[in-house]
Design goal:
The protein is of the alpha/beta class and about 350 residues long. It contains 15 helices and 12 strands. Helix 5 (about 85-100) crosses helix 6 (about 115-120) and helix 5 crosses helix 10 (about 225-235). Bound molecules: pyridoxal-5'-phosphate.
Amino acid sequence: MNVSTLARQDVAALPLYSADTAPCAVDVSDNTNLWGTSPAVLDAVAALGASEISRYPALYSESLRDTVAAYLGIQNDDVGAVVGCGSDNVLDSAMRAFAERGDSIAFCDPTFSMIPVFARLNGLELVRLSLHENFDVDAERLVAAHAKLTYLCTPNNPTATTISRAAVEYVCEHASGVVIIDEAYAEFADDSFVDLANRHEHVLVTRTCSKAFGMAGLRAGYGVGARTLTRLVERARGPYTLNIAAEAAMRAAFSERGLEWMRSRRDDALQSRILLRDALRARALEPLESHANFVCVPLASAAETARGLRERGALVRALGGLPTDIPAFANSAGSALRIGVGPVAAMDTVLAAYDEVRACA
Ligand SMILES: *Cc1c(COP(=O)(O)O)cnc(C)c1O
């Protein structure tokens, strides 16, 4: 018997997620926090002893729900939070909670690469539209898809651009199903849409501790929305998902000391982002306007440039197959580099490597 013939089709047909993860002197390829994580988080994890580790964690991390709500300034008793093993886990659970096999999820390309993966694992059909040339979403067409789920990502990965408030509000007001607003990079942006989770029963806003809080390795994320909605996501997620280290780390991350660290590294990132943008422009590149801790640089030679950068100790993400009906990507044959924003020394390494690559071209 060949066991692969027994596998679910969605699973057997899905390619494994692959990224270049071999060690490199400076790795700015995955939008994580290049300043590390808060000492408050490190202390909390180090303080765990056998009495905690040998026991099961809380079923649904009940005590963290209020911590999260307080961080987001939510005072409405009808609005609650759900935590998960990374916000990936919250997104995946939301799909299972609200869409049956064969239902569809609508979104605008390019966006977070895990969305099609989780959608297919949950047996969902993809309705892919393109972002507008100004990187906003086409709210009317998204709504017209009548999808069971609509996914918006703002600031968007991999473009670092934001969706206009008018478009987000239009989708929330008119969508026929649940709307997910992925705010993984909200700490680096000027605006947040958490207020829409307060206003609409069918809106889930997801956030993560992987980026601004520097906890990608611990896998901690969360979503906020109407209590009825977040409880359903929690049901689909299942019990005991957040491990004890992630739970302790999350509590520390949202403590005064943790938040102070996060905000000050966030301010560093905003400064580095300006430096990086100006340095790229000085090299005749045209990075898209970034509202996150990374920049997206349309570049026809992205793949070979990334290879050259890697040989010189700088790992960036090369993107290909981007929609060429977006003018910025038409000019770059659908290719771009995504470069994480980090300490000035790391940015200098990347830029020096780029100068060498260009000198050799
Ligand atoms: C990184 C990222 C996430 C989340 O990741 P987790 O580590 O699973 O919390 C979610 N959405 C987007 C758009 C991201 O870039």
